[in-house]
Every structure is written in structure tokens, then in C-alpha cells.
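REVIEWER CHECKLIST
Item 1: Sequence provided? yes
Item 2: Single chain? yes
Item 3: Sequence as submitted:
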Amino acid sequence: MSAPGRTSTSSPRPRRRPSSLAGASLTYGPGSNTDWDWISAAAGAVEKAVLTTLLLPGIATVHELQKAFDLGVRSVRVATHATEADIAVQHIAKDRDLGMDVSGFLMMSHMASDADLAKQAKIMQDAGAHCDYVTDSGGRLTMDGVRDRIRAYRDILDPSTQIGIHAHENLSLAVANSVVAVEEGVTRVDASLAGQGAGAGAGNCPLEAFTAVANLPSSRSPWWCCTAEHELGTGRSEAGERVLSSSPA
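Item 4: Structure as written out by the authors:
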């Protein structure tokens, strides 16, 4: 409340873009535009990338997913807590019915052991996910934690199932964690310009720094070299389209 005779100079809290489909609310924050405005604008601008959205079961519905598809979205991350993969089965099945590229997105991955997280990833794979992510949305994992989880995924998942890494910058380890993940065979790396994004308050893996590391000469075999089947920073759908992994969630 302002003092008598004075007016408040505080400004309304700026509205932002929600980080997931149907994420605008009093709880998560209102968006400055609707999901459909954002998706339509992005669909009109992308040329090489595959337009991607994030969906949280219980917040977004399959009906909203259908509308996103109609507007041009062709890839989706279905996100759950690290121990709740089973609530994503219906949404993953719908994504596959639409012919979309689908990733299972196990958030707060530090809260499950490597073996338990891998079992959850397999639930998503068996439901139809093309790719399973280690999603460090709490920004808590260190390099060993990332390495152990990627290896556990590879031990239990089908060889054809891709693995992704989504790192946050809370410990300033997002680039290091992403590099370790690629060395362990990850084929999708999430990053954003200047690390912009929610990132548990600290931001995401900064695209510029990750790209710089990827281009450094190395005495090891060049993990940054791209082939038709393994392209750094992108995934491949079954149709061979490029999937941009650059999401500020």
C-alpha cells in the first residue's frame, strides 16, 4: 500500500510465455499470448527445425495436443515426475497415433536412482516414446550422476530408442553435464540462447557455450562429429526429419 498523498510506482508483473502446453494459469503464471498464438507464429518462422512442444499430463489434454498438431507441432515431450511415467501412457499413445515424434521427459531425475529412473524410461519407451530424456529440472545432477543414468538407460532400453539430456545451470554444470551425456551416447541435447528459460531459477544449458565446447579440438575421438544417424543437438524422427532440441523449459 502506498503512503498517503503518494502513488505507487510498482508495475504489474510482466506476463510471460508458459513453458508447457496449457501452462497459463494463476498458479503457473499467465501468458502474454495464447498457446495457439505462439505456435502459429513459430510455425510461420521455422524452416529447418521441427516444431516441438512440452506437455504435462494433468495440465494439457489430448484435445489441446490435437490442436497443437493441427497448427504445425510435430514433436512433443511428454513430461512427468521421475517416478510417474505411467501417467504419460495415454498421451504418448495419442502422439504416436498422430504420427508425431515423441520423447519421454522424466523431470527431477536426481530424485530417482539410476536403476529406478531407467525402469521409468522403459515404461515411456514401451508406451511408444522414440526418445527418453534424463531431465535435470532441479539442476542437482553432477557429471557422475548424469553418466550413471545414461548408462542405466542404455542397459535397459532398446538400441533404437534415443536418449536425451536436459540440463539446468543451478550448479554451473549444464554444459559439462551435456558433454558427458554426449560422450555416453546421447543424441539429443537441449540448450537455449544464453541459457534463457525457467531452469529452476538458474536457466538452461547455454547454447553458445555448449556449441563452443563441441567445436574444441580434442585428443579423444571426435564425439562432436555428426553423421546422418547421430547429429549433435538434434534428434531424428522416423521420417528422418531434424528435431531441434532447443527448449527453454
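Item 5: Key structural point noted by reviewer: The beta strands are 52-55, 75-81, 101-107, 131-135, 162-166, 188-189, 234-236, 242-244.
Item 6: Recommendation: ____
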